[in-house]
Amino acid sequence: MRKINRSIKTAALSAVAGMLLTGVSVAGSEEAAANVHTGRATVYGQLQDNSLEDVSTPEHIAAVAGAGFAPTEIWRTLEHGEKVECLDCIPDVAKLLYNSNKKTREISAWWLRRRIFGVFGPGEVYSQVLDTLKTGSETRRANAAEALGEFLLKDGVGPVAQAMVTDSSSLVRQSAVHALERLNNEGPAAELGTAIADEAPEVRLAALEASVHINVFSRIDTVVERLSDESPDVRRRAAEVLGSMKSTDAVVGLMALSTEEQEADPRVRAAAVAALGRIGDPSGHDAVQAAMADDDPLVQSVARIALRRL
């Protein structure tokens, strides 16, 4: 009980101290609230006035969303204008979701997702992005998929997952994979597992990467299958993913990849040996031991480390 009381007192004192540091007195907080930048200027007195948040006026936000502004100016304006209310700016910022600069697209989606009105209602920006994902050009469909991921709305999982497995463009499918990863979801029907077997190696690689970054991934079998992929980059990444997942079902396949007879690429062999060490299954010991005699120094080095884990 004393610890709880002490925590409450500490929190209260911290709150008061914070108000004092920013020039806000407990008694006169309403007066100080009339000019929120007064407090910031007190703490950050060395900064120029135009470096504070009020540099992002509605007029400036609307202006930078047009043509002729450097990406850094767009980023600065939108980031500083996080709390600026400007419904009229929304259509202009929405156009930036299809900008050629990736970071501009991300920051624009970040700014928009903080505005319920004008973005998520029927016929508003969110609905427009959904339509673009289905009917836009290849580049705009890819950008629309990215935007749905950055909006962080659960309703976006289904459309993104569908695009990931049905769109004719590998660029769109790859962007949809990134969006699904951003949404921390494997898809309503575990579509991420399907993407791991996509015909395009860049999509397979993106899907493998996403599989280790989301909280729940249920299709480890599709990763195991990639150990026999035609692309050495995919085989290597699949081995790394299986090692991080500590998948005992992959031990036999990894043992095969650890030998020069069955795997010509030393990077793949090294990844397979490292994965066997991370999984820690004793049945992989002999394969790791044999890798000590590999012709490639990297594989030998990885094998020495892996042996310590077996």
What does this structure look like?
- This protein is mainly alpha-helical and 310 residues long.
- Among the domains are: 1-50, no CATH class; 228-310, Leucine-rich Repeat Variant, CATH 1.25.10.
- It is built from 19 helices and no strands.
- The two termini are 48 Å apart.
- The model is unreliable at 1-41 (pLDDT under 50).
Main attributes of the structure:
single chain, 310 residues, mainly alpha, Leucine-rich Repeat Variant, 19 helices, disordered N terminus
- Element order, helices and strands? HHHHHHHHHHHHHHHHHHH
Looking at the structure, the CATH topology of the domain at 228-310 is Leucine-rich Repeat Variant
Shape: elongated
> What separation lies between the terminal Cα atoms?
48 Å
The total strand number stands at 0
Helix-residue proportion? 55-70%
Short structural description:
The chain is mainly alpha-helical.
